[in-house]
Amino acid sequence: MTILETHDLKKIYGTGETAVHALDGVDLQVQSGEFVAIVGTSGSGKSTLLHMLGGLDRPTSGSVSVDGKEIFGLTDEELTIFRRRKIGFVFQNYNLVPVLNVYENIILPIQLDGKDPDTEYVNKIIKTLGLESKLQNLPNNLSGGQQQRVAIARALASKPAIILADEPTGNLDSRTSQDVLSLLKVTSEKFSQTIVMITHNEEIAQLADRTVRIEDGKILRTGGDQK
Predict the structure, then answer these.
(1) For 81-88, what is the mean pLDDT?
(2) Residue 63 near residue 74 (C-beta atoms within 8 A)
(3) Domains of the chain by range and CATH?
């Protein structure tokens, strides 16, 4: 089942001869439960693509469908609600709330939606990510790797249709990066979670089920199953 799809997605900055085509007709499909890595050099358009997939920015033209919903047909308010319910984000800089402890950070998106967390499910995530002893800690008392684990747990907790990971190991050393990526893969498999990750690191991309290469705003190729 296709959970994420783009059609002729374009993003143009500026006009005339100075126009920059950050995305130039991107067609992409991601199946439910897939772990896809989007690989590209700096300036290739991969971050712009991730922002479009997550509804963080609107395209110049084209469409993005998430879980059967064309997201740019929504108003800004509707899109905010849809994003909170259907899309989990893992950012390079963690984006944890410093005054909330680990557990409060994990369940924050669910509470913002006015719902009660599925405690059993959240506890499974916490155990899988090895955070049981850190639940009362504030983010500034955690290592970078631990903070990224919290960010992954937060992204998973609301049972989103997809998780979008933006260079999730960019601020981590190589050993911690491998640990975090391994946990992402484990959570993808254990919770049947669809994950789209952007990275410039070819070695990291090999952990995904499939790689998609983007250069100059265009998809160049899609790699096969690497499991």
Answers:
(1) 94
(2) no
(3) 33-58+76-222 (3.40.50.300)
